[in-house]
Amino acid sequence: MDLLCLSLNHSVTPLAVREAVAVSPQDTPAFLHELKKRTGADEVLVVSTCNRTELYLWLPAVATSDAFVEMLAMLELRGFTASCIPPNYVFVRNGVAIRHLLRVAAGLESQILGESQILGQVKEAGNIAREAGTDGRVLHRLWERALRAGKRVRTETTLGAGALSVSYAALELARRIFGTLDGRHVLIVGTGDVGLLAIQNLDGSRLGQLTLLNRTFERAQELAQQYGGTARDFGELMDAIAAADVIISSTGAQEPIVSLTDMREIRSRRGGGMRPLLITDVAMPRDFDPGCGALDGVFLKNLDDLRDVVEQNAEGRKRALPVADSIIEEECESFLHWQHNLGVEPTIRGFRERAEQIRVAELEELRGTIDDESFAAIDQLTRRLLNRILHHPSENLRRHRGLRDSEVKQLVHELFTGDVPHPKAENPTNEETS
Amino acid sequence: MELFGNGTLILLPIAYTLLVVAYAHRFLGFESWFARSSRIWLVATVLTHISALIVRGITVGSCPIATPWEATSVVAFSVALIYWIVELRTNDSTTGVFVLAIAALLEILATIFVAGGDTAAGDRLGAFASVHGFAALFGLSAVSVAGAYGLLYLFLYTAIKRGWYGTFYRRVAPLDRLGDLNYWAALVAFVALTLTAGLGYWGSSSDPESPAAFADAGVLLGTSLWLLYAITVLGRRWLRLGGKRLAYCTLLGLPVAVAIGVSGLLQRGGFHG
Questions:
Q1: Annotation marks residue A50 as catalytic
Q2: Does the ipTM exceed 0.85?
Q3: How confident is the model over B183-199, as a mean pLDDT?
Q4: Which helix (H) or strand (E) holds A414?
Q5: What's the distance, CA A167 to chain centroid?
Q6: What torsion do the CA atoms of A51, A57, A63, A69 make, to the nearest 10 degrees?
Q7: Is the pLDDT of residue A2 over 70?
Q8: In the Cβ-directed half-sphere of B38, how many Cα atoms lie within 13 Å?
Q9: Which of A21, A382, A428, B22 lies in disulfide reach of B38, CB 3.0 to 4.6 Å?
């Protein structure tokens, strides 16, 4: 019995290869069925994002090496060529594979430590496998544990706290000032790559108004239509600033587009320091005169300021790692315990059934030799006696986590039947190869 | 009843201290039982305190504000009550540790006064004096809360301006909300101080035996505090007293409120000498 994971991820696999092997949500059901058929696995699950494609297999009966070869073959069909020096994939089994999925869901294996999107992607992967009918008791349970671990890490640690990109850091600053961006007026000055990224990051916020300004009016108009904003002529810059709460500016201008005198006038039109104004000037050279930041109620942040936010947040996330690791260990232990019981339960059920058969057979020999009342009393007595005798061995077997399934079965077989032990194969639980 | 009164004397400072610890845990993001039960601690402390004040009122047969420890205890209670209302209204508990620390400090001071032997009930107050006195103490509590919010606003404002992105920046309520809380606390203070001043003026003008209205330090300080808050609240629109300016005004009220409190404590013949 083996649980396998073959992972092609950002730490070992080049981007071009990751792009080639990525399985889209539409293609995933067919891929899952093919994978299950070719490897002979009982259960399969695929997690595929821009940073990773991971195949999870539950193999109760098939040889691991055969399944591994088939997994590689399927990925080779999509343009992957395995190399061992340096390895461009990670292949892990059992305990390590379990821990790996839990860490992935918690964002501990993400390129941006603690990023939250991965939890939704793991959830989606499990749902697709369930709908395709390729998961089962073990992988479904593992998937549930992974989601639980991911949620716990997010709520019980600060691993996901604080933005780790400049544009998110700007939004985080806005939230520290305004609480929420709901109903706020956001102005994007310059709709190049940075401006576009800012608009995309704002997508989903219930903004009061989104205004776009660009030297090429058509470009602003095009994006305004796409993202539900209003395009204004660049000549209306001062009016637009006076009306805004948050400004993200990234033009290619070689001189500041807003001087200190301009800002003083704008501030006066805004009612002095009554209404805070956050300006994130991510242009190089800067769009706003640095002196604007000294005015009351004006928070001017440039690229370096935002990088400071990002660096401090990254440090904060690293400090949360020990707690996150301990959560992963707890959840991993919990899953391994469940998996262990899953193997022991049929054995326990078997010897209890056998004991019950013996009891009933012996009791039947008494039937007719004693009156009904005595028969019922003996029936009840033997049933109770059997339960009490078997209770402790059953519970001890459940608790005995050091033994592996096959060893437990053999031991129980010997204890309750006295037969010669069956020969058995080695089956390690915690191994990693790559 | 006396047993309950004596029991709460010891219990309340402990309850307030634990309350501050619970809100500190919450502010720092600890996943402790203390942090999760902070709201329950708050409700329990406020209810215990109001019960203690009612029992004290029944015992002395008047509103329990006649002695320094009673007045200090009422201010502590009012601060906690105002904070509770704020938390219910905003569902924000990040400022609790700072505001409730004032209440805890005042309640500990009140207990020290009792330990110092000043446990006399003082003169019994009539209904008019009770309402006047209670409104004044409630106003002073609101001034303290407004001052605390003003201070928090200025701290966060400076943190954002200077790029100090530490625990305070990450954990405390957003700047805009602190500004709102600052204004609402100032408004409550202004209403309570107006009621106090109005009742005081009406009382002194209708009673020929009453002391000269503007002759004592308490009245002078109280009037200046009322004026400051009138300008702060009413000038929000006309004088553009928002954000940092509002915070400075409310903060300015804090030493005046402390001076009023100290002058009340020092005068042996009561607040008006």
A1: yes
A2: no
A3: 92
A4: helix A405-417
A5: 22
A6: -30
A7: yes
A8: 29
A9: B22
- Which stretches of chain B sit within 8 Å of chain A by CB? 29, 31, 156, 160-161, 163, 165-166, 169-170, 173-177, 240, 242-245
Q: Which of B165, B232, B239 to mutate to test the interface with A (most CBs of A within 10 A)?
A: B165
Q: Do B245 and A173 touch (CB under 8 A)?
A: no
pLDDT at B55: 87
The packing angle between helices A64-76 and A28-39, to 10°, is: 140
CB of A47 closer than 8 Å to CB of A56: yes
Residue A312's closest chain B neighbor by CA? B165
Query: In this predicted structure, which of A3-12, A169-178, B188-197, B237-246 has the lowest mean pLDDT?
Result: B237-246
A163: enclosing H helix or E strand: none
Cross-chain residue pair A175–B176, CB shorter than 8 Å: no
As a whole number of angstroms, the distance between CA B250 and CA B154 comes to 11
* Contact between B96 and B109 (Cβ < 8 Å): no
- For residue B144, the 8-state DSSP code is H
Between CA B23 and CA A166 the distance in angstroms is 32
Cα distance from A279 to chain B (closest Cα, Å)? 12
> Whole-model pTM?
0.67
Of residues B35, B130, B138, the one with CA closest to residue B80: B138
